[in-house]
Amino acid sequence: MPPPLALTLGEPAGIGPDITIAAWRRRIEFDLPPFYLLADPKFMARRARQLAPDLGIAVVEPAAAAAAFKTALPVVDIGTPVSAEPGSPDRSSAPAAIAAIRRAVADVGAGAARAIVTNPVAKNVLYRSGFAEPGHTEYLARLVEESTGVALHPVMMLWSPELAVVPVTIHLPLKDVIARLTSDLVVETGRIVAHDLRERFGIAHPRLAVAGLNPHAGEDGALGEEDLTVVGPAIARLKAEGIDARGPLPADSMFHAAARASYDAALAMYHDQALIPIKTLAFDHAVNVTLGLPFVRTSPDHGTAFDIAGTGRADPSSLIAALRLAARLSARAGTAHLARRA
After folding, report:
1. For the chain, how long is the longest CA-to-CA vector?
2. Res 43: pLDDT
3. What is the distance between the alpha carbons of residues 342 and 340, in angstroms, rounded to a whole number?
4. What are the pLDDT tens digits along the chain (342 aa)?
5. Which helix (H) or strand (E) covers residue 298, if one does?
6. Please, where are the H alpha helices in the chain?
7. Distance (Å, whole) CA 38 – CA 97
């Protein structure tokens, strides 16, 4: 039997604990792979009393999680007490969220977990604690670099059966996108997407559709030169490397059904260009997948939803999809082991 999945707590005042409980309760219905939650067991017991008084919690180490999963929610103690109440982050929130991520990376690196699934974090809460990375994706890459000495270029993909999209630039103000967008960045992103579509998703010949930056992909320079000077040359380089990439394409006509059937992933130039179409098409079941890491990492494609935390109203569909996709991808890729520096 393969190792279980490691599921991080996320922001404890958000809906991460709620959807974890809901997903475990539907484990048979959705044939979920065994997973364990990295959290404070006492905190999870308090939340469970609010949402599911009959829920059993088993405090385990990862090796015992699969056996416990059949009858109880397995929780691995992160050693960081949590006092946050639903909807109200406090000083315990950021340390707990960070501790869970660090332990998950250690577990997958040691082979105790087959992949990582992360519950949503509240970036503003992390930033107030001194957290220096833009988000989960960059922090995971830094942890790998600390462990192995290898610098990585992580890539965020939003995946659903209907559509897979990759923003080339991610969490930037729109006014900064042009300065950060380079041909090298588009090429490196395209390489990683094509590689992981082959190796992890099993697509022998991935097809990439690349959006233009400007309206109508620049109208041959009339609406901006970036598609001629940055995006177009990057696509030519990808093609020269044998990658099936086409564009730059007008983003406003890339996401209808017939267009989506012609490619396996769309590369968009900035955050909303990518996320608006997938959240329109697959709001409840899209999954955030980090490409370019030596292990599989997925996450629900939504935030912490403080307004409904602790109410039992949170929909676990995206977490369920993230757990199922993590199991699928890690079964193909095998369990990762991070080679530590000598």
Report:
1. 64
2. 97
3. 6
4. 899 999 999 999 999 999 999 999 999 999 999 999 999 999 999 999 999 999 999 999 999 999 999 999 999 999 999 999 999 999 999 999 999 999 999 999 999 999 999 999 998 998 998 888 877 888 888 999 888 888 889 999 999 999 999 999 988 889 999 999 999 999 999 999 999 999 999 999 999 999 999 999 989 999 999 999 999 999 999 999 999 999 999 999 999 999 999 999 999 999 999 999 999 999 889 999 999 999 999 999 889 999 999 999 999 999 999 999 999 999 875 544 443 332
5. strand 297-300
6. 16-25, 41-51, 65-69, 93-110, 123-128, 136-148, 174-180, 183-199, 226, 232-240, 257-260, 271-281, 317-333
7. 9
Token readout for 259 is 């267009």
Hey, what domains does the chain have and what are their CATH numbers?
1-153+294-342 (3.40.718.10), 162-281 (3.40.718.10)
Q: What is the pLDDT of residue 332?
A: 73
State the amino acid at position 93 in one-letter form: S
Q: Pairing relation of β-strands 287-291 and 155-159?
A: antiparallel
Does residue 61 come out as left (phi exceeding 0), alpha (psi in the -120 to 50 range) or beta? Answer: beta
Non-local (6+) Cβ contacts of 111 within 8 A are: 3, 335, 337
Amino acid at 280: T
CB of 17 closer than 8 Å to CB of 73: no
Beta-bridge mates of residue 6: 36, 116
- Residues 152-164, buried b or exposed e (16+ Cβ, 10 A)? bebbbbbbbeebb
Residue type, 341: R
User: Given the structure tokens 């041909």, which residue do they identify?
Assistant: 183
Determine contact, residues 251/214, Cβ cutoff 8 Å. no
Degrees to nearest 5, angle at CA 219 with 217 and 220: 100
Distance CA 121, CA 126 (A): 8
Three-point CA angle 240, 243, 247, nearest 5°: 85
